[in-house]
Amino acid sequence: MGDTPQRSAHAGTGGTGVATSHEQPAGASARAAERFGNPGRPGGDLGGGGGLPRARAFGAERAFRGLTMAAGTTVLVIIAAIAIFLIAKAVPALRANTESFWTFEGWFPNDDPPKFGIGALAFGTVLSSLLALFMAVPVALGIALYLTHYAPRRLGNGLGFLIDLLAAVPSVVFGLWGRDYFAGPVADLSAWLHTYFGWIPIFGDGPYGSSILLGSVVLAIMVLPIVTSLSREVFRQTPTANEEAALALGATRWEMIRTAVLPYGRPGVIAAVMLGLGRALGETIALALTLGSTYAISFNILASGGNSIAANIANRFAEANDTGRGALIASGLVLFAITLIVNITARAIIYRRREFTESAA
Amino acid sequence: MAKRVEAANVTAYYGGFKAIENINLTVEPKTVTALIGPSGCGKSTFLRSINRMHEVLPGARVEGNLTIDGQDIYDRDVDVTAVRRMIGMVFQRPNPFPTMSIFENVVAGLRLNGVRRKSILEESAEKALRSANLWDEVKDRLGKPGAGLSGGQQQRLCIARTIAVEPQVVLMDEPCSALDPISTLAIEDLMFQLKDKFTIIIVTHNMQQAARVSDRTAFFSIEKTGDPGRLIEYDNTQKIFSNPAQKKTEDYITGRFG
Prior knowledge:
Low-confidence stretches of chain B: none
Strand content of chain B: 15-25%
Order of helices and strands of chain B: EEEHEEHEHHHHEHEHEEHH
Distance between the termini of chain A: 46 Å
CATH topology of the domain at 5-95 and 170-253 in chain B: Rossmann fold
Shape of chain A: flat
CATH architecture of the domain at 5-95 and 170-253 in chain B: 3-Layer(aba) Sandwich
Largest sheet of chain B: 6 strands, mixed
Helix content of chain B: 25-40%
Membrane topology (chain A): Multi-pass membrane protein
CATH class of the domain at 5-95 and 170-253 in chain B: Alpha Beta
Number of helices of chain A: 14
InterPro entries (chain A): MetI-like, MetI-like_sf, Phosphate_PstC, Phosphate_Transport_Permease
Oligomer: heterodimer
Protein name (chain A): Phosphate transport system permease protein
Radius of gyration of chain A: 30 Å
Number of domains of chain A: 2
Keywords (chain A): Cell membrane, Membrane, Phosphate transport, Transmembrane, Transmembrane helix, Transport
Number of strands of chain B: 10
Radius of gyration of chain B: 18 Å
Region (Disordered) (chain A): 1-50
Strand content of chain A: under 5%
């Protein structure tokens, strides 16, 4: 097959068939094969002494490669399209803003002249998310370790299933539950905290109710299943050889976890926490229902108030005019930037230890 | 430092499966004892019963009597972690902690024992690495990850980690089976040196290795799959390999097993 005269003529280079076929685009040789009624399969004349069989020009290999590449490209296209749309809508609103977008504490984009600032919203978003992680992560890691290293296998599987079920509850349910039932106990807790720990600035005076604390606790419950599930998978993957090495050195169960399990799972746990943070930062309806929707920066997490970017979008979108929508979209861009920074930070933390984690694989 | 290990009627189970039955043998201090036998004959199970690592697996348990210098290690009042500190173990595949540096790997056991002083840790690490014939190869890169070493170096690192806590007995479960011949030789040389200080028990599939390194050899075997492993013969290595008392032993070491 390597010296089929027609093939060489078609390629037009006068070289051997084997050499030219590599230089042809994938489609060309397939068309050529079709035209000359040659199936073009490698090994068609095995043993004929005609040289090595040609590489297959077009097949499942190339088709699959093309498909996966198309899938990968789609992500980039979608992200670019969203970014362009957001920026195009946000810029006019930002131009019209008569106050500083970064420092002004208030949100009146529908007024004339429009006045709005992202400061309080971004602050509330980050504060509530960090508080939620602060409460959820230790509990999640505790649950994950219990499920993987302490609980009997059947109990572990059952509990794990329940945790995953928690992740499937819609966030509006958490929000309503937080607002209608959980607000009372949290208000009592707030009063107690203020009475006994009031000297810590974050435990300020009331009125208690729809506070950052309430929002954070609800967020924490929502973040818990994600962090737990992922950490559980990470801890489960600790090599038995390393666990046994620690035990054989005379480690207790907890010492074994500290020596072998936690260091090995560190990058995975960081990734889990970051995913949890991502969910907390982007959580909309639960916070829209539990936060006080104010526009002031305050470290007092007990008093009614607080707001977040996503909750603000949900609360204000319906009433917004053109500038108002643009302003909300601009706040969405800021949220996007915060999420990006969080993810880059997480990558950096993992990357710094790559020498140790890569050799682990 | 080195102590006598005595097993009397040791039987071990995995759940309902009896893996070894009525093993009786005594290992003298400062000797190397090799456990040989076909796969599945229970020699690793027996080895793991000696430092109570067998019971780590769910459903696994040990019956009978195992003593170290007369002290029952399965006594109800004995702290299992103390047993494992006294009886170190080297595994089949090198298993350094992947997230730790070479130095941290060596001192991991000491840290578990509550040693905090940097000077003591450094001194012990150097001593252990020298004993494991690894010091010259790693002294300039103690901060690098232990998993970055070659397989043979990793195994010697694991040996260093084991002897750093100064155990009485060192158990080795096929320590050379994942290594090339040169690394194997390095570890065999090491065993010769280590028996000055420790009682060593090694499981091996390599009969030349058993003949080379051990003073005494125990041959384990099973009747057929599903039966518990039993100790067939236990004697001086020279006797086992030149003039075994049991027909089964002779068949195995001459390759006529089965």
